[in-house]
Write a structure and sequence with these properties.
Bound molecules: flavin-adenine dinucleotide
Shape of chain B: globular
CATH architecture of one domain in chain B: 2-Layer Sandwich
Oligomer: heterodimer
CATH topology of one domain in chain B: Aldehyde Oxidoreductase, domain 4
Shape of chain A: globular
CATH class of the largest domain in chain A: Alpha Beta
Order of helices and strands of chain A: EHEHEEEHHHHHHEEEEEEEEEHHH
Largest interface: A-B, 19 and 25 residues
Largest sheet of chain B: 7 strands, mixed
Radius of gyration of chain B: 27 Å
Largest sheet of chain A: 5 strands, antiparallel
CATH superfamily of one domain in chain B: Aldehyde oxidase/xanthine dehydrogenase, molybdopterin binding domain
Helix content of chain B: 25-40%
Radius of gyration of chain A: 19 Å
Number of strands of chain A: 14
């Protein structure tokens, strides 16, 4: 196995093309454990962390750009980013432990394509777009369209994600992310739930985006819950509808981490709680 | 004269015992200097890798190692054919390298030594093993079923009359009884009968097993490894190799946790044999995955218990049927459960029947008070039920029934002085007992018992030229025991504890010493240290007498000095005596070996406050208070550490830990991600109360403290969940999923 650490996007693309059996990585917190448990080792490993634009966080013209290889610790700890996207920052701050967060990236979290990836629902509710590089140039794609199933993505051979772009939120709008794990940390989400809620002065919800993780092969939007929220106060009735909609959107697996029934029931609970949390923030 | 049973001074006059110096091995543990087995590297050393069974139960038709032997870097390949046929009851040797059958997924089948770990692994994958799969049994119910597939075709149940005519998966049955059971239940005003099940759990030590072996051409081997007892390693490794123990020298490395799990061997004979064949040193380090699949977890159980009590709270009758998994070979786990189940209570009429059951899972080994936590889960839950039914305070009910000095244990012997009631009173008198609880919060009380043991220990004390006392024992330090040895030596010799250096020596350098287990080290090895120190004091007095040219009877030892009782000579400090040792008869060294008797029984009472999230079933431990009888706390800080460690492991066992096997008998969660031991943020600070009812059989009153702390947490958590939600949890783990399912059922929904 060979290791390369290119200094530019072009150099990385050249390397990718030069060896068909190659693999990009950032923190390697997914791929190293995977290789240890039997995933075939590629001939070439391309480390993306030395490419300057991939390890920067910036906000220009009301658009945030987060490098795909930025470690989670910097996302969780960036106060300006956190004030715009507290939910996204929280989701990055939940990954693993301090040691893991020093390495784990958004690019890796999204492209590993685990249904339980914590940052994905939070990226989706914020309408984050991935900036994808290839020999043919750059393209952008909503994060929701990247994972196509557990472990698989819509990226083509020779492509990788350079950064994520997110527009700054409107006033009276906020996001939140909650996950359920049996422990308090170092665990994989049994259910994850993200919401972005926009409120008007009267206390009604004017817009909502809700996404769930770990309850289907990919993160899922809960549009029925969004519809139930739009134009309505966040009251008992609305919350009951949200819970039912979230449960209806679930198509989980039954495994050692949680039964179908359990994931479905808790998805309703977390959807309700995350909406309350985001709405509270939006009112402030 | 030296009398090691003489009780030292009165407790409040101790200068060192009862203080909290930083452990002597502390700094090196923190700065990375401590050497663990996996750290060792020898010139020309090879890496070993073990090939393991993919099947839960299969016959081995053939093993072909030819291709593997031809792989790059390979220097040796071994199978069971390289070892003598073990004695039919040498289950350790039988377990370590499969012969005609594999009995669980992960059992060793062959091993390879090669230049690198990668080469060894690649070669192991080329070993061709032809298996014929056999039906397996994974649970007590499956294994005990009438027509169950058998693991061992010749296994006849012991302890049953008449002797069964037919083999089964039940190696043995234990029975303890007292009084008249039917009359007892007739007397009872309330009777509860319940069934409990618990899952296989692992000790979860952070350091995986590791070994380096260097075998020379004259069939002698030096072994470096981490274990709870290197003399045990020597004996068991020799047995599997067909050698004498004296052909081996075992050097203990620092240990990264054992909790009972390192009281046996896994890799040592394999490494020694590979080294012998390759004529080079061989190192084998397990992965976490291997630790889970192939090393000793503690049994899963199925327990039925019935208790009857009178209105006044007196428990008058108890009946129990216990079945303990043992993994693939016979063990003693059911018997231990039967010994502990009713031990805290004076029950006039009981009948306890316990079965060992073999299943197609890894062979079980001790885990902190082995078998007692599951037994306590059953007893303490039903005791809680009785207290509620009779509207008695749960501590009051326990006090009414608690054993005391002179009461009999279920297995017969009488208790000496014990501090069980004191632990109950300590919890009742603690301010935490009356903190008000909020909605969805609950408080649970539970007690536990463990017998503790004595066994063989040796200690040598030698004084250096500069007057330092090197205290050498053969007891691996798994919980701060070196600090306790040093404190007892400092107390005896009357010198600063900093002038004592406690050491753990290899099998050639100290007398035979049993495993660090059964909470025995501070008790038994501590007695050996005290004995060696007292001999040394006699020797120091003799030397002072020579220097003064007086009779030894005129010399007393006090505060590290020889005193002349008739005051003609100024006191002589220990360092002065060692300085002129050459003139008075040479080096100052004493050794004491003993078979320790009179270990004191240990009791703990614990209180758990928790909150249950009614929508997710998640449990948050709010507060946790434990009171335990230490006899005497030699180093209170490490005593508290033992209390807390036991509780932390018990809470993990209660809430989340379990082996998950799929239908094929393959473990699905062999890693710390999905085998959930608690992380630091899962637990509050565990509050400790040290109760001290001295054990008269130890010079400082020590009773072991290492184990009993893990016994009450499971029922304490279960009783608190009941208090919070009204749900009686009778199945482990009490995970969010099982609690939510229980709540759903109770609320008649989903
Ligand atoms: C102990 C532990 C705890 C964990 N806890 C959590 C948790 O709580 N929540 C959670 O969601 N995850 C968790 N993870 C998983 C992992 O840490 C995260 O998914 C992390 O975000 C992955 O980032 P990485 O940079 O390390 O990915 P890498 O391992 O570097 O890459 C992962 C995959 O993505 C691909 N990839 C990486 N970057 C790019 C890119 N820019 N473009 C295209 N493809 C790319 C790689 O080829 C690889 O297939 C945990 C992992 C461990 C080991």
């Amino acid at each position: 196995m060979k290791y390369e650490a290119p200094k530019s996007i072009d150099e990385a693309l050249e390397l990718l093309e030069s060896e068909p059996d190659s693999c990009v990585f950032a923190g390697a917190t997914d791929i190293i454990p995977q290789m240890r448990s039997g995933r075939p080792e590629p001939k070439l490993m391309i480390d993306l962390k030395c490419i300057p634009e991939m390890v920067q966080i910036a906000c220009e013209n009301k658009v945030w750009t987060i490098g795909a290889a930025v470690p989670a610790v910097l996302i969780a700890g960036d106060s300006a980013l956190k004030s715009d996207f507290p939910g996204l920052a929280e989701s990055a701050g939940l990954i693993g432990s301090d040691q893991i967060q020093n390495r784990a990236s958004l690019g890796g979290n999204v492209c590993n394509a685990s249904p339980a990836a914590d940052t994905v629902p939070a990226l989706i509710v914020n309408n984050a777009h991935a900036v994808i590089a290839s020999k043919g140039g750059m393209r952008t794609l909503p994060v929701a369209l990247i994972a196509t199933g557990p472990g698989s993505t819509s990226l083509n051979a020779g492509e990788f994600i350079v950064a994520f772009r997110i527009e700054q939120p409107l006033p009276h709008s906020a996001d939140a992310y909650l996950r359920f794990i049996p422990r308090t940390e170092m665990d994989i989400a049994v259910v994850g739930a993200a919401a972005r809620i926009t409120m008007d002065k009267a206390g009604n919800c004017t817009d909502a985006v809700i996404a769930l993780g770990a309850v289907a092969p990919t993160a899922v939007r809960v549009t029925a819950a969004e519809d139930a929220l739009r134009g309505n106060p966040i009251d008992e009735d609305t919350l009951t509808k949200i819970m039912a909609a979230a449960r209806a959107a679930c198509n989980p697996i039954d495994d050692k981490r949680g039964s179908k029934e359990y994931r479905t029931q808790v998805a309703g609970v977390l959807a309700k709680r995350v909406v309350i949390e985001a709405a509270d923030r939006a009112r402030k | 004269m030296t009398d090691i049973n003489a009780v030292s001074n009165t407790p409040n006059s101790y200068k060192w015992v009862g203080t909290r110096p930083v452990r002597h091995d502390g700094l090196e543990k923190v700065n990375g200097h401590a050497r663990f087995a996996a750290d060792l590297s020898l010139p020309r050393m090879l890496s070993g890798h073990v090939l393991r069974s993919p099947f839960a139960h299969a016959r081995i038709i053939s093993i072909d190692t030819k291709e593997a032997e031809a792989m790059p870097g390979v220097k040796a390949v071994i199978t069971s054919a390289d070892f003598p046929e073990p004695h039919r009851k040498d289950y350790v040797s039988l377990n370590l390298m499969a012969r005609d059958k594999v009995f669980y997924e992960g059992q060793a089948v062959a091993a390879v030594a090669a230049g690198t770990k990668r080469q060894a692994k690649a070669a192991a994958e080329k070993i061709v093993v032809q298996y014929q799969e056999l039906p397996h049994v994974l649970s007590i119910d499956e294994a005990m079923a009438e027509d169950a597939p058998l693991l061992h075709e010749n296994l006849i149940t012991k302890g049953v009359e008449p002797v069964p005519g037919k083999a089964s998966n039940i190696p043995s049955r234990t029975l303890f009884e007292r009084g008249d059971l039917d009359a007892g239940f007739k007397e009872a005003d309330v009777v509860f009968e319940q069934e409990f099940t618990t899952k296989v759990v692992h000790q979860g030590y952070i350091e995986p097993h590791a070994v380096v072996a260097d075998t020379s051409s004259d069939d002698r081997s030096v072994i470096w490894c981490s274990s709870q007892g290197h003399f045990m390693i020597r004996a068991k490794t020799a047995a599997m190799l067909g050698w004498e123990p004296s052909q081996l020298k075992v050097i203990p490395a620092e240990i990264g946790g054992g909790f009972g799990g390192k009281t046996t061997i896994y890799l040592e004979p394999l490494a020694a044999k590979l080294s012998q064949k390759a004529k080079r040193p061989v190192k084998i380090v397990m992965s976490r995955d291997e630790v889970f699949r192939a090393t000793g977890p503690t049994p899963g159980t199925k327990l039925r218990i019935k208790l009857g009590a009178k209105k006044n709270g007196k428990i008058v009758a108890g009946k129990a049927w216990l079945a303990y998994e043992n993994g693939a070979y016979p063990g003693i786990w059911g018997m231990l459960g039967a010994m502990c189940l009713f031990a805290p209570y004076d029950i006039p009429n009981f009948y306890v029947e316990a079965f060992e059951v073999v299943v197609n899972k890894p062979v079980n080994i001790a885990y902190r008070a082995p078998s007692a936590p599951m037994a306590a889960f059953a007893t303490e839950t039903v005791v809680d039920q009785i207290a509620r039914e009779l509207k008695l305070d749960p501590i009051e009910l326990r006090l009414i029934n608690a054993v005391e000095e002179g009461s009999r244990k279920p297995d017969g012997p009488k208790y000496g002085p014990i501090g069980f009631k004191e632990t109950l009173e300590a919890i009742r008198n603690h301010p935490n007992y009356s903190i008000p609880l909020g909605p969805n919060q609950g408080r649970g009380i539970a007690s536990g018992y463990w017998f503790n043991i004595g066994e063989s220990s040796s200690a040598t004390v030698h004084l250096t030229e500069d007057g330092t006392a090197i205290v050498v024992t053969g007891s691996p330090d798994i919980g701060g025991s070196r600090a306790s040895m040093a404190l007892m030596a400092a107390e005896e010799l009357g010198i600063d504890v900093k002038l004592v250096q406690p050491r753990v020596a290899d099998t050639d350098s100290i007398g035979f010493t049993d495993v660090t287990e059964g909470s025995r080290t501070t008790f038994a090895t501590g007695m050996a240290v005290v004995g060696a120190c007292r001999q040394l004091i006699d020797e120091l007095r003799k030397r002072a007498a020579m220097m003064w040219e007086v009779d030894i009877d005129e010399v007393e030892w006090m505060d590290g000095n020889a005193l002349h009782t008739v005051n003609k000579h100024a006191p002589l400090a220990l360092a002065e005596i060692t300085k002129s040792a050459k003139k008075t008869g040479g080096p100052l060294t004493t050794t004491h070996s003993l078979e320790a008797r009179g270990a004191g029984a240990a009791f703990s009472t614990q209180m758990c406050d928790l909150e249950v999230d009614p929508e997710t079933g998640a449990v948050t431990i709010l507060r946790y208070t434990t009171a335990q009888d230490a006899g005497t706390a030699i180093h209170p800080g490490y005593v508290e550490g033992q209390f807390q460690g036991g509780v932390a492991q018990g809470i993990g066992w209660a809430l989340n830990e379990e082996y998950v096997h799929n239908a094929e008998g393959v473990m699905e969660n062999p890693g710390f991600l999905d085998y959930r031991i608690p992380v630091a943020s899962d637990l509050p600070m565990i509050e400790t109360i040290i109760v001290e009812v001295p054990n008269p059989k130890h010079p400082y009153g020590v009773r072991g403290v290492g184990e009993v702390g893990i016994v009450p947490p499971i029922p304490a958590v279960a009783n608190a969940i009941h208090d919070a939600t009204g749900l009686r949890m009778r199945r482990l783990p009490m995970s969010p999923m099982t609690i939510l399912a229980g709540l759903n059922q109770k609320n008649g929904s989903a």
